[in-house]
Amino acid sequence: MDDKQSKTAFIGLSQALTGIAGSLLVPQFDSMNILQTIYDGFVNNAGPYAAQVILERFVSLRDQGLGDDEIAGRILADADNGPVAASLTKLWLLGNWYPLGSQSNPVVISSNAYIQGWAWKIAQAHPMGYSELEPGSWAEPPPPLGDYITPTPQS
Amino acid sequence: MQPTSSTAAPGTDGIVYDVVIVGAGVSGGIVASELAAKNLNVLIIEAGQPIPASRQDYMERFFTSPAKLPEAPYPPNPINADPSEFNVGRATTNDLANVRDQSKSYLVQNLGDNQTPFTSTYERVGGGTLWHWLGTSLRLLPGDFELKSKFGHGRDWPIPYDSMAPLYARAETEMGVACTVETQQYMDGLYPPGYQYPMPSIKQSYLDKTLQRSLAGVQIYGEPMNLAPTPAARNSRPYQGRRVCAGNTNCIPICPIEAKYDATVTINKALTTGKVTILYRTVASRVNVDSLDGKISGIDYITWTDPRGGASGHGTAVGKFYVLAAHAIETPRLLLMSADDRMPNGVANSSGQVGRNLMDHPLYLSWALMPEDKPIYPMRGPISTSGIETLRDTAHRRKWAAFRMEIGNEGWNFPINDPYQTPQDYIDGTNVSQLNPKLEKLHGTALVERLNKLFIRQFRIANLVEEEANPSSRVSLSWGYQDRLGLPRPLIDYRLSEYTRKGFKKARKVNSAIYKAVGATEYTVTNTEDPTYFEVDGEGFNYFGAGHIMGTTVMGSSRADSVVDSDQRCWDHDNLYIVGSSTFPATGTANPTLTIAALSFKTADILGKRLSK
């Protein structure tokens, strides 16, 4: 796979694991350069070989016509790919890379990776230390979860 | 060990300041600002690094820190570092994970004889520990000043509430406290008629409002469980050039927009007068006493350039008056380090009380999940916007330690480090959070929906339990363990009294009753392996530090058993004052900063008067 194919597969794999649309994980106008940030964090920490193996596995399953849920389930069940997929899921949610099979000693990818972590949106909240919400909005319920994790319909 | 260099330090040679202050935090800052406004010359010597030009430097350190602990934004990084290698150490959360390991813990904790660790931390940096305070600005209540005479525990303050009230008002103006007087019903009658805070209360969170509705009419131990918006030094309106609180849920470790007051506000104001000089990276190492008149004649200091590089020079700061404002562990440490043949127990210590009566508000933490049909959507707004204050000053204090209750808006961040733990449990099939008892492994939409359902129902209550003064809980010097400057690190002896332990037992009962009343499911866990573990009547507890380090140079009405008088002047030395919570003879039931600030105004007034003569 060339770089573009790898990144396309990476977005597809990330969508399957997190349940969050690839168009939200990596917005069309990626002004924060989030794709490169998370992709580099993934390749550098998982290692280029493991990264290539899991992306090829994803492409293979996708080419078999399997859906996201099935693909993610199979990859997570792989002895070699499973821990890599788990750490990649954590990376998207938490902005940290956790060593394979570990819940401690994470590597913080960057301040942007922290700020863009999806756990905060899943909580219908904002990263601690980074809020763009209106002052006082905490007094009322937030918008529904769908507003945070559902792509805007294409017009 | 003496400093390794004899290079003269710049800044103080030949100058006699009106006042020399040790410590550039909130108390030293207020004294400096008030005196500078009276055209007096002030020198502050600060052990740590300068206040940065922009807090973005600290924000970046916070964002990229793997553990978002209170000390994370501030230099130097203490993680996996030996405190003997740093010129300027301080107690950090890292200490608490390594209380028995002096190669990792700056505080040397004596855990023999059933003692337990002291678990509050502080900063040694320009601006001091207020960089990571919550902003809570409650006044002490009248009974807080009369713990001994009214309830038979610990010590009284030598100051009645009535004389504190006008000082509190000045502190509230300086710090910009947001509070609507009418919301503080438990304070009824304690404000002067018509009193108003500088701005109205910060909005209560959706969690607060939900609990308030569910607790209407509920009484526990005879008191109503009313949630009052907490007076806080966070802007509900633009104030003195600072922005409105945007609810970043990050008061601790750092407010990203300075909507919360911190000491840099007052220190910057002081600096604009041109009358205040601050020497950073300058560690006070000895208070010198004139053998003829007993007055302080100078404060020796050591300068440094590299945080791990040892001394770069030394000198002596000279003033007409001296103020120690180095917080409740470093202030007694300095006085004790100043011992000599004439004063073998240290400076200001004829009472033998320097370092003794170390106190905190040991914190009982509990946590729960609201029912599925009553989400409260945490992790938004300031970390806390309300508290229950009705059990602070009741007749129960004869039998058990009083406490206030802080309602947390940050989900289970404090108890289990969410939103980090629960996702990992559901990704890895573990159950550290207790929220994944079936050890499920989820992915995709199922993962998102499960996490959402759990996150939006999390909340916690923290009880800040009072302590009574106990001379055996103390800071002394650990000559066997030194910092990079060769100065002895603090040696800590500490234990909770029966009075405080009984308060914990009641705190648990109150919190559990609240969870039941609002239909929440409690998940509080007690760790018997943790060094803070203790038992009351066979019931086990853990405690946390509240970050409220108090006592150690207590004020009193007699020089025989206290270090300073009610003006915070040392009984032993006419020109030496101590400001900060080290002078508190009892912790009371309010977070200490507002009282620290109020008393700093009092001492500044007295110094101003004495210097105008």
Automatic annotation (TrEMBL), chain A:
Residue ranges of the region described as Disordered: 134-155
Tree of life domain: Bacteria
Protein known as: Sorbitol dehydrogenase
UniProtKB/TrEMBL annotation, chain B:
Domain Glucose-methanol-choline oxidoreductase C-terminal, residue spans: 472-599
Keywords, alphabetical: FAD, Flavoprotein, Oxidoreductase
Pfam families recorded: GMC_oxred_C, GMC_oxred_N
InterPro entries xrefs: FAD/NAD-bd_sf (IPR036188), GMC_OxRdtase_N (IPR000172), GMC_OxRtase_C (IPR007867), P2Ox-like (IPR051473)
Domain Glucose-methanol-choline oxidoreductase N-terminal span(s) in chain numbering: 247-362
Keyword Glycoprotein: no
Keyword set includes Transmembrane helix: no
Family annotation (Gene3D superfamilies): FAD/NAD(P)-binding domain (3.50.50.60)
Coiled coil segments of this chain: none
GO molecular function, a single term: flavin adenine dinucleotide binding
Entry superkingdom: Bacteria
Family, per entry: Belongs to the GMC oxidoreductase family.
Name by which UniProt lists this protein: Dehydrogenase
Source lineage: Bacteria, Pseudomonadati, Pseudomonadota, Alphaproteobacteria, Rhodospirillales
